[in-house]
């Protein structure tokens, strides 16, 4: 069973996908970056998932400001 776009957005907003503020080492950050890229690649071409991922990325970015 795959994740829906809404589930991905929920995970990202809850902090499962995004890193804590400075909690990850550089190696951990790279792994998180690779995971994010893999998730985006998996859902490429799925408009609903792409919207959810873009929303999650924007929410993450604005929360770091």
Quick structural overview:
The protein is mostly helical.
Q: Uncertain runs with pLDDT below 50, 5 residues or more?
A: none
Distance between the termini: 35 Å
Instruction: Return the structural class.
Output: mainly alpha
Calculate Rg over CA atoms: 12 Å
Strand-residue proportion? under 5%
The total tally of domains equals 1
Detailed description of the structure:
- There is one protein chain.
- The chain is an all-alpha fold and 65 residues long.
- The chain has helices at 5-14, 26-42, 47-63.
- The chain has one domain.
- It has three helices and no strands.
Protein topology:
Blueprint: H1 5-14, H2 26-42, H3 47-63
Q: What attributes characterize this protein structure?
A:
65 residues; globular; single chain; mainly alpha; 68% helix; 3 helices
């Amino acid at each position: 069973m795959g994740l829906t776009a809404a589930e991905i957005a929920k995970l990202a907003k809850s902090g499962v996908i995004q890193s804590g503020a400075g909690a990850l080492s550089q190696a951990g950050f790279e792994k998180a970056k690779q995971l994010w890229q893999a998730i985006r690649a998996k859902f490429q071409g799925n408009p609903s998932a792409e919207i959810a991922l873009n929303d999650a990325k924007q929410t993450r970015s604005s929360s770091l400001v």
